[in-house]
Design goal:
This protein is 43% helix and 14% strand. It is built from nine helices and eight strands. The strands form two sheets. The chain has a six-stranded parallel sheet with strand order 5-4-1-6-7-8, with helices on both faces. This is HAD family hydrolase.
């Protein structure tokens, strides 16, 4: 893993959950509501799975997440869980629940002022990803917000490739910033500088071992902390 600070890029692509957004500040109360409703509707009869399982799956596609969280459930239950999760997340965001990580907005504004084009690439649902950006007041900072839910991509690699092509970006001058192995892979396979966010990783500690650089504070993207 390289630790030298990369030169300022022409563009930076950010994951959302675990990178910009402190997901557990929203997901913990939402998780309990989802399973309470599933039981009320007769679609799930087991105890509520640990929210840590769900948090550990962040970065995956939703259909893969539910196979991990509720492996013995029916397809009907998983589809309903999709609907409830989005509904309760958007309600929570509108009510002021959920926080960005410290210094995210300020750092994004510094990068924007320096002429860096900013993007989001997330494996989440379109309305969830855009809802976070809008409700937390950062949507206007981005030149594009891409999600697997909107573009129907099967991997973060494909989603980032689509973003790069759409905006005519030269890969060697772009950062991919994220907290999961899928973000590192998306950066590497698209020829980007891969920056791993080690401040609040929801996955395994080894996931970022192939990143070009690690940061432990979001401000490290603009200074030498």
């Amino acid at each position: 893993m390289k630790q030298d600070k990369p030169l300022q890029p022409d563009a930076a692509i950010f994951d959302m959950d675990g990178t910009l957004f402190e997901t557990d500040t929203l997901l913990i109360p939402v998780h309990e509501r989802v399973f309470r409703t599933l039981r009320e509707e007769g679609l799930y009869s087991e105890e509520t799975p640990s929210v840590d399982i769900l948090l550990g799956c962040l970065g995956m596609l939703l259909e893969d997440i539910w196979r991990q969280v509720m492996p013995s459930s029916t397809e009907e239950a998983r589809k309903r869980a999709d609907e409830l999760l989005l509904q309760y997340e958007l309600e929570g965001l509108a009510a002021g629940e959920g926080s960005l990580y410290p210094h995210v907005e300020q750092t994004l504004r510094v990068l924007k002022a320096r002429g860096v084009k900013l993007f989001i690439a997330s494996n989440g649902l379109e309305h969830y990803v855009k809802g976070i950006a809008e409700h937390r007041g950062i949507a206007s900072l981005f030149d594009g917000i891409y999600s697997a839910g909107e573009y129907g991509t099967r991997s973060k690699v494909d989603l980032v490739a689509r973003l790069l092509e759409d905006h005519g970006l030269q890969s060697s001058h772009v950062w991919m910033v994220g907290d999961r192995s899928s973000d590192v892979e998306a950066g590497k396979r698209n020829g980007l500088v891969s920056i791993g966010c080690a401040y609040a990783r929801y996955g395994e500690g080894s996931e970022l071992c192939d990143a070009d650089r690690l940061i432990h504070d979001f401000r490290q993207l603009v200074d030498e902390r």
